[in-house]
Every structure is written in C-alpha cells, then in structure tokens.
C-alpha cells in the first residue's frame, strides 16, 4: 500500500516539480552572469541540486508523514491480526473434515430405536447447556474484550478500511448467517461461563474462550450458535461427568450410555463390537414399540448395517470395535446431529427424517417391509415354479 502510493502519486509530483525547476533555471530570463548566485557551497549549480522530498510534504499533505505512517502501520497490524484469527475460523472448508453424519445414513435406524430411551433427557440437557451460557452477558469487560468482534474493531475506521474489511469478511464467511448471529455465543460469554460452570479448561490456554470459538465456529462468524456450542461441549467435556464441579455435563444421558456399554461388554475387554450390540439391543427396555429395528423376524438381519455404521463412524483405537469413550461420544454426537440446529435445540422429529423411514405412525420400517414383501413374493413364485416343473415332469413320466 505504501509502495503503491509513492510510485503512483508522490514520485510523478516530484519529477514534475523537478522538471519545472530545471526548465525555469535554464530559461534566458533567469540566467545570471554571476555564477556564485547560481551555485551552492559545494559548487553544484542550484538547478541540478537534488530535491529533498521532505520540503514538499507540508504542501502536499494535510497530515505529517509520521502520523500517516503510524496509521498505515496500525491498519496493517489490524488486518494481519484479523486475517490470522479468521484464517482459523470455520470459513476454511477443510478444517471441519472430522464432522460426520453421526445421526444420519444407515445409523439413523439405530437412533430411531434409541429415541424412546434417550431423546427426551438428551434434549433437556442440550438445552441446559445453551441456556446456561446464553444467560451470561455478551458485553465486553474492562479486563476482557471480544477479540473476534470485528464490528467493534472497525467502529472508528474510515470508509476505505471498512470497505476492505467488508470484502475480506465476505470471502471468509460465505457460510455465516446473520439471522443466527444475534443469538449466538461470543468469547466474552464463554470467558465467564467455562470456569463458572466447571467445564474443562486446559491450564496452558491463554485465551481459552477465543480458542474454543475458533475450534468450533463452523459457519465462520466469530461466534458459536447452539449447534456449534453443543458440539464443542460434547467433544471437550464428554469425560467430565465424573467431576462434581461440572454443571450441566450431560450426567443423566452419559450415565445411561455408560451403563449400556458395560451391559454389552460381557467379556470385560473394554471394547464392544457390532455383533455384541446387535445381540443385546433387543432386550433394551423402551417406552414405546415404535421404530423397532428388530420387529421383522428374519434370518437376513436387515438392519445390522445400522449398528455397523455406528462402529465405522466412531472407531479410532481398535478397528471394528468401540471403546467406552468412543461409544459414549458416538451416541452423544448422533443425538447432537439429529436434535440441534443453528437456531437452537429441537424437541421433536422435524430434523431427523423419521417419516422417510417409517410408516403407520412409526410401526413399520418402510424399506425393510417392502424388501421382505418382495422377498416373500419371490420365494412364493419360486416355489410355485418348482411345483409346476414337478407336475410337468410327473406327467412326462406317466
């Protein structure tokens, strides 16, 4: 910016001024026979003496060079700071490669089955997380300000600076939604909430609130909406339930999940696989007979892929198996995926798409039923064809 200014503005002016001076000093009217009056102390003719740009600054500019350079440096520092911060925010599409469809795909049938056991409690605890943090004021403190609040940083900037920032933010925040911004959580709220609620904070974190936002801000607006906040909480605090100081740490949900894991883990190896879950889940006490993936008795085990999908999406330590932590996180993230949006936590089934998988008020697995019906029809046709061939053979022999 500074180089362009000198090249495009100042340099042409200096050259033009130098040319005028050179021409006027060479004109006949200004020629003097007394050479002493046209030379400086070093003996160099005055019209050839190098022009000092400092002598023109006061005439060319409304502010001093020192003030201008200071403003330029401050602007560049601010740009670099924001670029550095927002290069880490969710606008980088590959940053959130680890986010999966934990509650959708084949595993969606498993979560349909688990809904009567978990959904109500999980929704209540997810809401408590968002509501508790939302109650903290988002106003800056004397000792702590929201460093990701660009609107505040740009408050006193001039038009050109704001325009440059607007273009930059548009590029970085293609996914950002202004409708959710006002109800989202900023770093000031997290700065207050995380220690107050006893949530996990690493001792080496300088600005833990800012780090938390940068880590989970998927839409890149510098704040955490309800979906992002709950996601961050699950990943950072899933093992925190044992600490009595942790408030709203999903204790009720996690206690049931861990109990299920121990029930499945008959060999006490610390790991479970899809077969163990498939064999044990039909014994699960459920408040409703809806969404029963074990309702169709058949030798093909149609919905085993629902259990396999849970394992595939969450296994890390041992291939084909889930540890207690992996199983716990897999269940929590599945319900997070189905019951949260950018606007808040959902009570009902508006997001989980059950109506596409089940008919007759959740009593019939539509795809499995049609598959079984087609299979039965095919088997009947085959048996009928076998009887027909047997009759033809019998007639031929007689």
Q: Which secondary structure elements does this structure contain, and how are they paired or packed?
A:
Blueprint: H1 2-26, H2 54-60, H3 65-86, H4 108-134, H5 150-153, H6 159-172, H7 178-181, H8 187-196, H9 208-216, H10 226-237, H11 251-264, E1 271-272, H12 274-280, H13 304-314, E2 322-323, H14 324-339, E3 358-359, E4 364-365, H15 366-397
Antiparallel strand pairs: 1-2, 3-4
Tell me what the structure shows.
The chain is an all-alpha fold and 398 residues long. It has three domains: 2-62, no CATH class; 86-362, no CATH class; 366-398. The protein is built from 15 helices and four strands. The chain has helices at residues 2-26, 54-60, 65-86, 108-134, 150-153, 159-172, 178-181, 187-196, 208-216, 226-237, 251-264, 274-280, 304-314, 324-339, 366-397; strands at residues 271-272, 322-323, 358-359, 364-365. A two-stranded antiparallel ribbon has the order 1-2. The chain has a two-stranded antiparallel sheet with strand order 3-4. A hairpin with a 4-residue loop joins strand 3 (358-359) and strand 4. The radius of gyration is 36 Å and the shape is elongated. The protein starts with a helix and ends with a helix. Mean pLDDT is 77; it is low at 1-37.
Number of strands: 4
- Over the alpha carbons, how many angstroms does the gyration radius reach? 36 Å
Question: Major sheet: order of its strands?
Answer: 1-2
Number of discrete domains: 3
What would you call the shape? elongated
Estimate the helix proportion, in percent: 40-55%
Q: Which structural class best describes the helix and strand composition?
A: mainly alpha
User: N-to-C SSE series?
Assistant: HHHHHHHHHHHEHHEHEEH
Biggest pleated-sheet summary: 2 strands, antiparallel
